[in-house]
Amino acid sequence: MIISNHLITGKTKFIAHIGFPTKSFTAPKILNPYFNSINKDLVVIPMACKKQDLKPLINGLTNLENFYGALITMPHKEEIVSLLKKKKKLVKISNVCNILKTDKNNHLIGGLTDIEGFKKSIKALKLTLKNKKILIVGAGGIGTSLSHFFLNEEVKSVRIHDINKEKANNLNDKIQNKNFKFNYKIWNKKDTKFDVLINASPVGMVSFKSPVNSRIIKNCSTVIDFVLSDKQTKILKLAKKFNKQTISGNSILIHQIPAMLKFYGEKEISDSKLENLL
Questions:
Q1: What is the mean pLDDT of residues 56-74?
Q2: According to the model, what pLDDT value does residue 139 have?
Q3: Whole-prediction pTM
Q4: Among residues 216, 75, 95, which one has the least CA distance to residue 147?
Q5: CA angle 64-256-42, nearest 5°?
Q6: Residues of the chain with CATH 3.40.50.10860
Q7: What is the CATH number of domain 2-112?
Q8: How far is the C-alpha of 249 from the C-alpha of 227, rounded, in Å?
């Protein structure tokens, strides 16, 4: 079997890319050519796993000798935490995990690299978040980790929205309990003026839809979409139409590759190779 010119043998180890649905997954297309370029006998394999199947899948994977680790994406970034034996600092703070591996005792260790990819993507565009008004759409794993991150970033305000009102309210309570002085509230839809709009929801992953109306996109300066897709999502297409700065989910993924490699104990990727992936 061959994946991106990589010959699969009995010695090949694999990283499971776990989420649902998997049709829009781009991580294997980015990471597999990279592992091949550094002669690493390792491949990323998408695994379409529904919520109710997560625990049995993880139990099965950890019993395989060629299991190297897993990348965790929607809708499992919060649910996976209960299966971890050890948690890195950011996972403990946010209760969100997007990457895992096993230790010598086959115990699961969970980490969070999304924020590192986000920070580096922001830095690449020479953007600053200080004193900015931010709207986050989606109170799931990504929205939760971003909300915790913004607690210490001197932003002016953060508003959170989710179609699941209970989820948004729970996250709002969590952040308020961390720091009641932080200007963090449920989004009032009458407020349409923000500096930064972040789509942390799955909207746009499968259907060509935008999670917010075009007026909000027109009023902001930067639009960030965490959705991983082969095609340009509608929210980013509208943002470019209105000449806004944009950051795609693919860019965030590529910028977190160094953090992923570090988590797995691999050599750091050079800046030139990272640029080639971009």
A1: 94
A2: 95
A3: 0.88
A4: 95
A5: 30
A6: 2-112
A7: 3.40.50.10860
A8: 5
Amino acid at 81: V
- Torsion-angle region of 138 (φ positive above 0: left; ψ -120 to 50: alpha; else: beta): left
Q: Which two tokens stand for residue 252?
A: 């965030």
Tell me the residue type at 69.
G
Under DSSP, is residue 124 helix (H, G, I), strand (E, B) or coil?
Answer: helix
The DSSP secondary structure of 51-107, one letter per residue, reads GGGHHHHHHHHTT-TTEEEEEE-TT-TTGGGGG-SEE-HHHHHHS--SEEEE-TT--
Q: What fold characterizes domain 115-252?
A: Rossmann fold (3.40.50)
Instruction: Collect all residues with Cβ–Cβ distance below 8 Å to 219 and sequence separation of at least 6.
Output: 192, 193, 194
Band (274; pLDDT cuts 50, 70, 90): low
CA atoms within 13 A on the CB side of 190: 0
Question: Reduced to 3 states, what is the DSSP secondary structure of residue 184?
Answer: strand
CB 141 within 8 A of CB 95: no
